[in-house]
Amino acid sequence: MLDFQQLIKLRERVRKRAEASPMRELPPFPLNRPHLSGRNRARGQTARSDLKSRAAMQSPVRNSPVRPGYHRVEVQKTTWDVPERYATLLAIGSGAYGTVSAIDQKTKEKVAIKKLYRPFQSLIHAKRAYRELRLLRHIQHDNVISLLDVFTPDSTLEKFQTFYMVMPFVAQDLGHIMKRKRLSDRIITYLFYQLLRGLKYIHSAGIIHRDLKPGNLAVSESCELKILDFGLARQTENEMTGYVVTRWYRAPEVILNWMHYSQGVDVWSAACILAEMITSTVLFPGHDSIDQLKKILNLTGTPDSSLVQKMQSKDAQSYVQGLPSQKKKNFKVVFPTMNEKAVNLLEGMLLLDPEKRLTASQGLAHPFLSEYHDPDSEPDSKPYDDSFESLELDVGEWKSLIHMEIMTFDPNNPGQTAI
């Protein structure tokens, strides 16, 4: 566990190390994912056919001061300072952070590089950046995105303003796939099994994703799924906003903020994703939060008195008690063509009371997933130390901790954090 005095000592140690020498150059490392190598090479070969036509998207910035071993590239009017091992940068994302694909010249694999813009602009941004880095360093699971590398072009703590994270590249997300084609029953079952397998792992570490949606599920050509984007994971209550989960996949307790969030919010989102894969239609396409709740209660019925009493928000209690009473719909009637086992699983995952909702582990053991369920290949996570969450630090102190994590990152042992 980390207390404030330990942090102060750590911060001073970081400063002394940063002042004594530039940050370490990252050593070459194996991906330690041999089952991905062939596919990534094939993906890279496919991508090379259109690289020439897209080359205009990136260009080296001449006569610019860059630290030794790095090169500066402009991608869609944004400057990227990355180690020379990463070449052929192409834009694949934007927003609060940008993402490019690149070729790792040491491993010959295609990777995704995420740049965090101005991560120290506020206390919330700094703590969020540290949280995401710690989470990615901890996670080691086939169905959850992992961290291959992390670096900064800034040579000292005083100059430290931005950093980059390198992760496996996966070309498609589930949302784009569902827009293009209808999925077969077998593929749906396999993808959903992997989703629950990944959720079981992160939930066993006490981690809540909080933003599960089709766009945050990467799917390879061989239908291997990875849960992406932990930018909202484990946020403290004072950082939460009403827009924690993309509206259509929000659990009812998130919409009304009627009780502390649990891992059940991820289970609810997963159920919405399963229904969407099967029906090719969004399950609860609300226009706003109130409409979202109405659509949910139209299927599940209004909360019973026992659930209302559990609600920690008096406003939520009053609002729900003022709603017209509705009975739960018959799921078999609502989904007449759906596999009976899938209907039963959905009912268990879409319970209004998160304490009664199926867990990811229970979902894996459901008959719907019996073809793939194997307890011996569904591991739990090692304990995750989140003691830093309770610390009240300033931006500079969070910055020092992030700098330390980057300096001590070992690609051969990514789960070993600095503290």
From TrEMBL:
- Keyword Acetylation tagged: no
Please give the name of this protein: mitogen-activated protein kinase
Cofactors required: Mg(2+)
Q: What cellular component terms from Gene Ontology apply here?
A: cytoplasm
Quote the PANTHER family the UniProt record gives: MITOGEN-ACTIVATED PROTEIN KINASE
Residue ranges of region Disordered? 15-70
InterPro entries assigned to the protein according to its UniProt record, in alphabetical order: Kinase-like_dom_sf, MAP_kinase_CS, MAPK, MAPK_HOG-like, Prot_kinase_dom, Protein_kinase_ATP_BS
The organism named in the record is Gambusia affinis
Residue stretches making up the Protein kinase domain: 86-369
